[in-house]
Amino acid sequence: MDKIRVAIAGPRGRMGSEAVKMLMKDEALQFVCGVDPKYNGEDVGDVLGLGALSAPFVPDVRQALEKYRPDVLVDFTTPHVVKQNMVTAIEAGVRPVVGTTGFTPEDIEELDKLCRTYGIGAIIAPNFAIGAVLMMKFAQEAAKYMPHVEIIEQHHDQKLDAPSGTAVKTAEMIQEARQELRQGHPEEKETIEGARGGYYNGFRIHSVRLPGLVAHQEVIFGAVGQTLTIRHDSINRESFMPGVNLAIKKVMEHTGLIYGLENIMV
Questions:
Q1: Is 37 annotated as contributing to ligand binding?
Q2: Is 146 annotated as a binding residue?
Q3: DSSP state letters, the chain
Q4: DSSP string of 123-160?
Q5: What are the b/e assignments for 134-171, b being 16+ CB within 10 Å?
Q6: Which of 21, 137, 148, 159 is labelled catalytic?
Q7: 229 is in an annotated binding site
Q8: Could you say which of 83, 155, 169, 216 is catalytic?
């Protein structure tokens, strides 16, 4: 069987460099190039200190797709460029697998339509850690029986969006399982703005940003005389790679946009 040819946008970043290492270990996948505007022609492995990979840097996505013709574009860039990268890939017949967050529901609908127009698949995963996906699924189930809930997510201080994509996805899944319920005292007042966190469907989401953190989230449920906490911690970014590997292989089998790793974990 032919190898799946993979390009990575953002291979020098924390997630992108881990993805390069993952591709090196899987004989079913072939890393063909990395996209980075600061480099042009240099070997990705040499720059990352991994040894020569015969996979060069290319300065922009369009050139990478035209010259190296990958099957899949893995994108770990930033929210302000990732949507255009996806559009460029889809129009070139290349399947995007995206870990960058910040997409609106309208973005997701637009990208799904574009995928179907071109007859290919794409995957956006707010979190690629298998344990984080299970946390979200468990939280959705718990919300059926314990509707009072708050989310606390913690990430490193260089993260650009708040709340995290994982927290938003968790909130969306909880919303599907419960009616909107405005929590807390009806006359409560914030003496410091934002103290109660962001409001979503009746409950609150709190974002913590500190150096030393990677990606952590707990979903706390409360009922009379009891609490339930569902928590997941990614200690290092290697924890995301089994999910990235799964997404690369599964995206080859689908048409349309898949939002959330839980939809391919069957």
A1: no
A2: no
A3: -PPEEEEEESTTSHHHHHHHHHHHH-TTEEEEEEE-TT-SS-BHHHHHTS---S-BEESSHHHHHHHH--SEEEE-S-HHHHHHHHHHHHHTT-EEEE------HHHHHHHHHHHHHHT-EEEE-S---HHHHHHHHHHHHHHTT--EEEEEEEE-TT--SSS-HHHHHHHHHHHHHS-----S-TT---SSTTTT-EEETTEEEEEEE-TT--EEEEEEEEETTEEEEEEEEESSGGGGHHHHHHHHHHHTT--EEEESGGGT--
A4: EE-S---HHHHHHHHHHHHHHTT--EEEEEEEE-TT--
A5: ebbbebbebbeebbbbbbbbbbeeebeeebbbbbbbbb
A6: 159
A7: no
A8: 155
104 labelled ligand-binding? no
Cα dihedral sign, 19-20-21-25 = positive
237 is in an annotated binding site: no
155 catalytic per annotation: yes
Catalytic site includes residue 137: no
Per-residue pLDDT of the chain (266 residues; tens, 9 = 90+): 689 999 999 999 989 999 999 999 999 999 999 999 999 999 999 999 988 888 999 999 999 999 999 999 999 988 889 999 999 999 999 999 998 877 888 999 999 999 999 999 999 998 899 999 999 999 999 999 999 999 999 999 988 889 998 999 999 999 999 988 888 888 899 999 999 999 999 999 999 999 999 999 999 999 999 999 999 999 999 999 999 999 999 999 999 999 999 999 87
Q: Residue 197, annotated ligand binder?
A: no
Domains of the chain: 4-124+238-259 (3.40.50.720), 130-235 (3.30.360.10)
Predicted local distance difference test score (pLDDT) of residue 160: 84
